[in-house]
Amino acid sequence: MPGGAHAGATVPVTLRAVLEQPEIRAGAPDVLCGADALDSPVRWVHIADTEHVGPLLEGGELVLSTGQSFRGSPGATRRFLDDLEAAGAAGAVVELVDAGGRPATAAIDALRDAARGRSLPVVLLTRSIRFVRVTQVAHRMLVGEQLARVERARRVHEVFTQLSLESASEQRIVDRTAELLGASVVLEDVAHRVLAFQAASADPAALLLDWVERARRIGYREETGRRADAEDWLQTPVGVRGRRWGRLVVPTALPDDVDAAQVLERAGQALTLARMAGRDERELLHQAQSGLLHELRQPHALTEQEARTRAAALGMGRAAFYLPVVVRLDRLPDEDPTGLQLRERALLEGLADVVRRVRRSMLAASMHSGSLGVLLAVPARQLEDPTLERICDELAGSREGGTAWSVGVGRSRESLLEAAAGLDEAAQVADIAGSLEIRRRPYYRFADVRLRGLLALLQADPRVQAFAEAELAPLLDGQDPAALELLELYLHHGGNKSALARTGYLSRPALYARLARLQELLGVSLDDAESRTALHVALLWHRLRDTGPGPS
Questions:
Q1: Parallel, antiparallel, or unpaired: how do β-strands 246-250 and 185-189 relate?
Q2: Nearest to 59, CA basis, from 84, 37, 38, 34
Q3: pLDDT value at position 407?
């Protein structure tokens, strides 16, 4: 339970525990000072009768003494206690008994006077005891504690090693940590958002109340430990040094920070390994899918059965139809290749999450920089559009301000190999959709891009090139650049001069004069429907050549 004993944790040997032993109680112990520090841990027990004991200590020792070298001098008694405080001793047990076994009154008064106001625990014994029995019992306790700590460390190591081998989730690691500590544990990211938590026996609502605000007040540490602040939490960073992505915290008091820190640190390491392993696993999966998709697009590289078997091994379920889809990222102004690659990877991971949520399977990989090829398994053709709409909606919903990509869709096929061959068609559609000024659809097929799609298919045909250049030849010599723009506006308004004039592009007299000049340059009548159609086709081809598709 929070603030209670850890599950399986070791209990440190304290001065209070030593004083409760029968060997000490037989001496009628009287705590003269430092009662608040009786629960401090004892590292070792040392017998010393010299007043200059400081150089013999390293800190944390309980010193047993009969005071033979200093009991006759109040000044020497003070120096003895001063040395112990300076050395960081855990406390002092001083037996002051005369040769007849009676309390040494003068020495006791001197010790009481020297101990007054000190924080160091000083215990007076007024009856004789055997110090050797005290040291034997205390050392057995200390050795037992050390062995228990070793066993505890071994157990903790085994628990988190097994969790790592099992690729346990972040939540499972947090749950197991809370169980080992018997306390609430919270995993948060660097923005103090709670990624996982286990309240143990605490009230979850109370635990997470105003969490972000409370967590902001607790500064980060680069190592496991506490920071004194408005609240005092034990914490450990999560992530490799220099790339921390969160921290693991225990927002409650603990009886033994040493043990808890050991557990928390191992949990932080397990969480770091889990995140790294997850990324490595995704990276290997992306590489494997990319390799298979490349092979599927090579003629005669695989048989249909081999293709299906390989795809199933990568998690793609068998389906009645396979749909080729290409997602083409828009190029952002002044974007470098690294930025484009990062956006592509984020889109790939987001797409995988969405497809998993809609209970479909896919193969996906980069076709070229900024373009993802996808083979989507669908159980029936009538489910293609609902599935595509949901995927596109969820992808678009993950971005504010609209999408930054265009989606092209090819024809679904029963054959996985034929569907892979349809990625070229889907890529062309995505490229054409990317050139549209306004995208009214979440995804496009060739039927949606219409004439632009046909021209994209025929873009490299020299006959189409010859036709377009012949139609536009008078406007491509560079003598009148505005003429090409005027023709495009005129065709955009369907040859309606009045509609063009209402745009305010030119005054009516100037517009009519420019149109007459345009007809003279072209040598055709702009009122003729066939001429306008021919010019429109030529102009579309020209614009696609200048701004259109990238490599596919």
A1: antiparallel
A2: 84
A3: 92
